[in-house]
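Chain A, query sequence.
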Amino acid sequence: MTDSKEKILVIKLGALGDFIQALGPMAAIRTHHPDANITLMTTCPFISIAQKCGYFDHIWDHTKPKWKDLGEWLKLRKQLNDSGFTRVYDLQNNDRTEFYLKLFNAKNKPEWVGAAKGASHRNDSPERIKGDAYTGHVQTLNLAGITDIQIDRLEWANDLVTFFDTKQPYVLLVPGSSPKHTKKRWPASNYGQLARLMDGWGFQPVIIGTMEESSIAEEICKIFPKATNLTGQTTLFDIITLGRHAAAAIGNDTGPMHLIAPTSCPSWVLFSGESDPKRHKPLGDAVKTLQKELLSDLCVEDVLANMKARDFRSA
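Chain A, predicted structure.
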């Protein structure tokens, strides 16, 4: 018996902030194709999110073949052509995924929704990349008849965080960033001063980040030892839950802020000249940004001038 279900492929490989911005469009694709068999092609760091959100029937752990690895390219070509996809939603939209369209045989070529040349529903408007990734996806999906698209509030991530030493009300501090982009980091000494001030306002400062960022947290704790240091202890889902219950969050232009902001947590995101807030600001209805070309020139007083305790969520 033949499987008569429509077969859909969604492509989203990374990075964390971009993946979170794509979740609302992914949910809209699921709603638009309620009976379809939907596969997500993604990379290892995002599989747990893809499984948890429940928008997909199958998830491909994609290893992104190197350009010279002919064997892997042939394997991917066979996998794509054998899968019987009727439509592909390309939410990555880069040179790599444009090449994936070319891997399909002419007789197997599905409808393709994205920016690639040859796409059946092609968004080649320069407006697509002028704003954030979410807005670009909304524009692209509209071409395929998907118009009811909302920011994903991550309500499917409802894990209970009961084992951390956090007391209400608390404020999350996110002082790290990718090791490749250290210019995106506001000085740890400033976070230390901010932690002391948050405590004076009656909020417990809670530091989160990866284990690789533990030295930053240690520097903050030297300045204000009463800060709670959860560096290296939280999962992606812990961060979402902590954000949902936090009074506020203050952090750099880094992945965890994209997990916190959609929960409606009041969030202040600090940008250097390395990135554009118009394109990289986290999604959320209570997000504010501050930017200096060099974050070392952004002093604590500058942040406090834009932040008042009354702006925080009532705890």
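The chain has a mean pLDDT of 94. The longest strand covers residues 37-42.
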